[in-house]
Design brief:
CATH topology: Rossmann fold
CATH architecture: 3-Layer(aba) Sandwich
Radius of gyration: 21 Å
Largest sheet: 7 strands, parallel
Shape: globular
Distance between the termini: 41 Å
CATH superfamily: NAD(P)-binding Rossmann-like Domain
CATH class: Alpha Beta
């Protein structure tokens, strides 16, 4: 199969049309969870463009199969799939339910035929909602148990997070704190939010409880925007970049690196990890790695996109400045809840100050992973964010 990481949109369509005529061998049924979400939606698009529409099965909630199908098609289009190709999706692509569902015998029979799984389903929220642990740990384990003894299954790709490593890992160097895949193998209790802790817990339990599962864990770093569509599929985390750009300051130094990848790059990597017959490792960072830009470089790219001349240089500020920064944002955005902004800024400052750079050597060697730097597509994120409020974008990350 031919892959083109970063062609123009028209060129991508030509590549994908060709790919539809060269369907991956050995894939009888690819089960995708989280297809109505951000990363999962982009995986769905990548799979359809790779010629897998007839072999794709999506676990989707809905009032009925027709309702679930409508949700699938809508998210596929939002994630960049041509409307004509979204029409390829039918009720045959729908497995109605969720991670914790009790499936009827007919659905169980369909699950028994699954040869590949990409599990993107999760509650990706930085809130303290108890559902984060319930869905990301308990329900995920229940779902995985259905495949523990499956003779048909060849690959189970579980989407974790690079920050599952916790906050006390890695080796500090001049280019940031380098984190290898082995750094996430232990049980580090130090986490900034329940989400990253839940991802560490479930990864450990999947390996302990289901040793026969053909498990591969993919750990994306920070996923922000889309290389072509900007924030159209999701505005997650980009609100923070907007605040930093406007304020010209934050609690991380200008040379602190921000390890960010785009959702479509992440999705293509997940699909290739699922389909490649043989892999050398059972865990991979999907990250910018050594190519991660500094905060100052991202701000400069945003200045260029905004045609800002003679803008003040970005500078590091102490945490004591965050209340003032939050007040300025609340006033400008006409947000009454200044404390919400301040809490969010403090939370993300914890991640930014770590300066983690996740080693992506494994994934580069395995599938020639070449993620586009956020500095090269941040202009699209800014364009698609025009007229959208900060609070509206924050809602992607603080789901109730």
């Amino acid at each position: 199969m031919m892959w083109d990481w970063h062609a123009s949109l028209n060129a991508q369509d030509l590549v994908r049309t060709h790919a539809c005529d060269t369907r991956p061998a050995g894939v009888e049924c690819l089960l995708l969870t989280g297809a109505t979400g951000f990363i999962g939606g982009n995986v769905m698009v990548a799979a359809i463009n790779a010629g897998l529409a007839e072999r794709l099965l999506c676990l989707v909630r809905g009032n009925d199969a027709a309702d679930a199908l409508e949700r699938l098609r809508a998210n596929a289009i939002q994630c960049g799939l041509l409307a004509s190709r979204a029409a390829w999706l039918t009720v045959d692509n729908v497995l109605l339910g969720s991670l914790d569902s009790d499936f009827a015998p007919a659905a169980v029979a369909r699950l028994a035929c699954v040869t590949h799984v990409i599990n993107c389903a999760a509650m990706a929220s930085f809130s303290s909602n108890a559902q984060v642990t319930r869905i990301n740990v308990r329900d995920t384990l229940r779902f995985a148990s259905r495949f523990a003894d499956s003779p048909a299954l060849r690959r189970f790709v579980h989407v974790g997070t690079a920050m599952a490593c916790g906050t006390r890992r890695g080796t500090r160097g001049p280019r940031g704190t380098r984190i290898s895949e082995q750094d996430a193998s232990g049980d580090d209790a130090s986490h900034l939010v329940p989400y990253t802790r839940s991802k560490q817990q479930v990864e450990l339990l999947l390996r302990r409880d289901f040793p026969g599962l053909p498990l591969v864990v993919a750990r994306p770093s920070i996923v922000v925007g889309h290389t072509v569509l900007g924030t159209q599929p999701s505005a997650s985390i980009f609100w923070l970049f907007r605040i930093i750009h406007r304020a010209r300051r934050y609690t991380a130094g200008p040379l602190t690196r921000i390890d960010v990848i785009a959702a479509d790059d992440c999705a293509q990597a997940l699909l290739r990890l699922a389909l490649k017959p043989d892999l050398r490792f059972d865990a991979y960072h999907l990250s910018a790695g050594a190519g991660a830009p500094t905060i100052a470089q991202v701000v400069a790219a945003m200045d260029e996109a905004a045609l800002s001349e003679d803008a003040p240089a970005y500078r590091m500020c102490p945490a004591s400045d965050l209340p003032v920064l939050a007040h300025d944002v609340a006033r400008t955005e006409r947000i009454s809840n200044r404390r919400l902004i301040e809490r969010a800024l403090r939370l993300y400052s914890g991640f930014a100050e770590l300066g983690y750079v996740f080693d992506n050597g494994r994934i580069r060697e395995e599938i020639d992973f070449q993620p586009l730097s956020i500095t090269d597509y941040v202009s699209e994120c800014m364009r698609t964010s025009h007229g959208v409020g900060i609070l509206e974008q924050m809602s992607w990350d603080f789901k109730a």
